[in-house]
Amino acid sequence: MIKKGVISLVLAAFIVFGVATAASADPWKNEAHGKKWKFKQPKPVKVNVKLVDIKSHWAEKSINSMASWGMISGYEDFTFKPNATVSKHEALMMIARASGYEADKNLSWNNILEDMIDYAVDEGILTEDESEDLAGWQPAKRYEVAVWAVRAMGLEEDNDELFFSDTNEIPAYARTYVSSMYRCQYMVGYPGKIFAPNKPVTRAELAAIIYKILDQGPVGDDDSDDSSTDEVEISSLGPADGSDNVEIDIDKLTAKFNVEIEAVDTLADVKDGIEIRSEDGDVVDIDEVSIDGRYLNIELDEELEEDTTYKVTIEDDIIKDEDSDEIFEGLSGSQWEFTTVDEDEAVEIERLDPENGEEDVDWEDTNVLRATFNCDIDADSLVDAVVVYNKDDNEEVDIDTVQIDGDELIITLGEELESNDTYEVTIKDGYFSSEESGEEFEGLDGEDWSFTTN
Q1: All domains of the chain in start order, with CATH
Q2: How confident is the model over 44-94, as pLDDT tens digits?
Q3: Residue 414, SS3?
Q4: Distance separating alpha carbons of residues 97 and 368, to the nearest angstrom
Q5: Which among 349, 59, 303, 338 has a CA at the least distance from the CA of 191?
Q6: Is pLDDT above 70 for 220?
Q7: What predicted TM-score, i.e. pTM, was given to this entire model?
Q8: If both were cysteines, with which of 7, 71, 158, 266 could 179 make a disulfide (CB 3.0 to 4.6 Å apart)?
Q9: CA 436 → CA 41, 59, 81, 406, distances in Å?
Q10: Taking all residues of the chain, what is their mean pLDDT, rounded to a whole number?
Q11: Alpha-carbon distance 276 to 367, whole Å?
Q12: Which helix (H) or strand (E) holds 132?
């Protein structure tokens, strides 16, 4: 059963992500697998709505493209609210629609949602247990989107080792899904080799993920014993060819072949036969090259430059099929190139007033709270962006206004604080960003800004 409290959120999902299914061609066929690629290839449809709040946003291209395909639309005020988080219902609706779900517009919103969940279970996007424990009104987490997207695509799960510093925070069952999304570069990490699996996904991030999958199409990653060709070929690359958001601290490149491989002579020869060159002509130092079954692993000895395109070449006659001795004919730089992200300074809070942990705050004179950032900030919307909570009374404090003045967030309370009570202030993620770079602020938990009145 769908809870009544989620109906308004469901309505929002349909306003933002649309009900009508975009015109689509037959499903792409992933010949490497010999099975159907489940996502639909969209065709442009005429869209007259111009979204007013995505200009210069990092995901502007993805959002506009998705709108042109009829996959998403805006709210009634022509906003998209790109930095707001999406609920699990919203994320599943968009993923389901990309994989072919068509809603019956004659059904009620509640029945459409139930129908979509049934579709997700039937198609293997959700398990029965997951659908029953979904809590769909809660924000969708990054690892959950990875799981649902891989299942919806019919993409093979990847057993490659993950090198994120927070891999242990990814549920064990979800790691093969995250690995697949990362290998194909449908999802990437954050600076510092962080995946942030439990971070809520924003509308812009989800649009960008689905856009990248639809735009790029299937990435071959065959593990089958298909012997339709005797040639030694690369079936997938990591980062994928054409990736434009690769982290500068990536420390390994991977090429997966259609057969188990080995060096023609030595691994030293293989290393000498691989070159990674930037658009400026600088050659990246390679630390080590290894072969593991079908995988050629290239360990880097230095950090890459930001906002730079790199091309990787692999010479012929250095790698061969382990069984047949068939020689790999090599890979040119035009067949494997990628671009690193433009690293922006993280948006952080430098000062809080009252300070976190302060225990003698004047309850009579304190009606304004201030957070000072390390840059000038901006916001698409200030509604519900901040919560002030009285821990002793277990209730929220009324807020009169939330304002931005350059690098300062000013919170004016709508009621007087109480004596000898502890308060927590939460600044939600997905609302604030750097005015200059667009880099998003990841939010502040109440436990990181608490104070007690005298």
Answers
A1: 4-216 (no CATH), 234-339 (2.60.40.1220), 349-452 (2.60.40.1220)
A2: 554 555 788 888 788 888 888 888 777 787 787 888 888 888 889 989 998
A3: coil
A4: 45
A5: 303
A6: no
A7: 0.53
A8: 158
A9: 35, 15, 18, 11
A10: 82
A11: 58
A12: helix 128-132
